[in-house]
Amino acid sequence: MTSEIAATAARLVVEEGLEYGPAKRRAVAQLGMGRAPLPGNDVLEDAVREYIELFCGDTQPEELRALRVLALTWMERMAHFRPHLCGAVWFGTATRLSDISIQMFCDDPKSAEIALIDHRVPYEPTTITGFRGDAVEALSFASRSPELDVVVGVHLMVYDLDDLRGALKPDSKGRTPRGDIAAVRRLLQDTAP
């Protein structure tokens, strides 16, 4: 059951751009499995990678690169706030339907909003659950990707500077869960056309 849910959720993540949580819940509903146990995020990520390899192998690498270029553009604009790319764009499972998630570690959280205002970027502030389980502010806006010719959602999560300590500890697969500007530049160099 878990693998069937993961495969269905992976399709929803790739084809509709859903986040993992909503994709898993919708997959259970679509399959009519009621209260079936949901697969873990690691299992779903593996299923997403498999789906991309099978059905999007010819287009996804270029889409991922374009999203990383756009992410780097925003990271450089917000460099003062120690931005770190995370999520699907960082881990390499993003497609043109994926949003860009950037975590920023600030001395003064309000200064990030002021920077967006200075860049004349209309944004929507919301509160989300951060990587440590506490509430953090997210500044969300749309940005056009010239390479993809689509508008992409960009989410800047604003953390306190102290949260950077321990934020780069490897995840359960031994990977760094986020990367700074230099790390994103290296990813782009490694995948240069």
How many helices? The count is: 7
- Provide the CATH top-level class of the largest domain: Alpha Beta
pLDDT averaged over residues: 94
- Sheet with the most strands? 5 strands, mixed
Q: Give the termini distance in whole angstroms.
A: 40 Å
CATH topology of the largest domain: Beta Polymerase, domain 2
Strand content: 15-25%
**What order do the helices and strands follow?**
HHHHEHEHEEEH
Structural class: alpha+beta
In short:
This protein is an alpha+beta fold and 193 residues long. The chain has seven helices and five strands.
Topology:
Layout (H helix, E strand, L loop, with lengths): L1 H15 L3 H12 L9 H15 L4 H18 L6 E3 H5 L8 E7 L2 H10 L5 E6 L5 E11 L4 E11 L20 H10 L3
Parallel strand pairs: 2-5
Antiparallel strand pairs: 1-2, 3-4, 4-5
Helix pairs in contact: 1-2, 1-3, 4-7
Organism: Rhodoferax ferrireducens
Protein name: Nucleotidyltransferase
Write up what this structure looks like.
This protein has a five-stranded mixed β-sheet. The chain is an alpha+beta fold. It has seven helices and five strands, in the order H-H-H-H-E-H-E-H-E-E-E-H. The protein starts with a helix and ends with a helix. It is globular. The longest helix is centred in the middle third of the chain and has 18 residues, at 60-77. It comes from Rhodoferax ferrireducens. This is Nucleotidyltransferase.
